[in-house]
Amino acid sequence: MGESRQELLNWLNSLLQLNITRVEQCGTGAALCQVFDSIYGDVPMHKIKFNARSEYEYINNFKVLTVYFAQKNIDRPIHIERLVKCKMQDNLEFLQWTKRFWDQNYPGGDYDALARRKGQPGVVGGQPKEPIRSSVNTGASKRGTTPTVGGAGARTRTPLGGGSAVLQQEIAQLKESVAGLEKERDFYFSKLRDIELLVQTAIDEQPELEQDEAGLVPSIQHILYSTEDGFVIPDAQDGDLETF
């Protein structure tokens, strides 16, 4: 039988000198990255954000781990899109596997977790948000009465107090999600733009690169400019549009 959630958290907190209270917090990727640093000692910890608060930052942490797995030939897929949702089951399964890997490969001796993360906080983000509960008609429910719907005396009322707070909380969460998505979009856009500029520079210097249809440059261009079925490129208006 595998170790319980509490046993795994106790091990993780003891090894890394953290204060993780829920398995879901492993969805930031930060603690998992440092577990592998405790084994090999060469994870680029300066790239890991322990105070990450958005999926965009969680994804960056896991991408560091994905590259590291490739360097160490660790044959284990990392389902980033599932882990960063900070759901218990997905993160528990990955944490259980990580603990088994650590048991088999930890070289022994002391590990100075604080020194390796250079003072980054011992509390990681990723705690799941509390579910939003509707406060509509809670008064009637407590009194054991059934809210009246329709009829001559029925009136439409605007939710006040708790209802307004719930809406504000929902709006704040949506704004946070949109901001994270926009940052992620801009990040990948800048990467693609850098690649496009490098390709164009290479073609300007060596035009023959573009003539070889089976070559690397045309292959990169095909990936950059290909579109999915059903996608329509907008007509250019008032001048040329950007490539992306």
Radius of gyration: 25 Å
Portion in helices: 40-55%
Beta fraction: under 5%
Terminal Cα span:
51 Å
Write the layout of secondary structure elements.
Elements: H1 5-16, H2 30-40, H3 55-71, H4 80-83, H5 88-105, H6 113-116, H7 138-143, H8 162-205, H9 216-225
Helix pairs in contact: 2-5, 8-9
Description of the molecule:
By secondary structure, the chain is mainly alpha-helical. The chain is built from 9 helices and no strands.
Short description, anyone?
By secondary structure, this protein is mainly α.
Features:
244 residues, mainly alpha, 0% strand, disordered C terminus
